[in-house]
Structure formats: C-alpha cells, structure tokens
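Worked example 2:
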Amino acid sequence: SKFEPLAETLLPTLLGRVVVTIAVIAESANECIREIVSACHAPRLVPKIIAGTSDKHQILRQRSVEYIVVLLTQWPPHLLERHVDVLSKTIYAALNDNRAGVRAAGRAAYHQ
C-alpha cells in the first residue's frame, strides 16, 4: 500500500517512544504501532519489530513481542515465510527472558 514507506519511517521513532516515562506518550506510541502493524502488512516492518525484542528496556522487549503476536494473528502467512527462522528464535528468546512480562508475551506468541 501507499502507507508502507511512511510506516517504515515512523516505526523506529514510535518504538523509541514506547519506553518514555510520560505515560500518555508511551501508550499513544504503543497503540499507534499496534494499528500500523494491524493495517499495514509490510514485510519490511518485521526486522524493525524483531530488533525491539533485544533492547535493554524491558517494556520495549515486551511490547515488541506483543507486536509479533499481532503479526502472527492478523497477517497472511505467506508474508511471514521469509522471517520464520528469526521469528521462532525471537519467540524462544522471549520465553527465556529475565522479565515475567516478556515471558508472558512470548508464551502468547508461542501459542499462535
């Protein structure tokens, strides 16, 4: 779609806003990313989301795994075929994360 280039540009900035301490900004960024991932099925977004799963901030790791759940539930499978290996490794890493919230999100992704 025509929105894909804009989504690719906005996603890294929005991912950075998910971890700010101002709750309104963090939650707005989270909801915006969820809507972008739901509506814009651009395979080039997947590596950017996966990169968030290895961030030092626990909330960004958790949210990124939650975005992977959205990918797995709402995207057509053929768009994710290229990323199956890295997605499975990412979900496995989330299942073994130090933080309970990331592990819970990893379990949700695993069951998809």
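The chain has a mean pLDDT of 95. The helical segments are 4-17, 23-39, 46-52, 58-74, 77-80, 84-95, 100-110.
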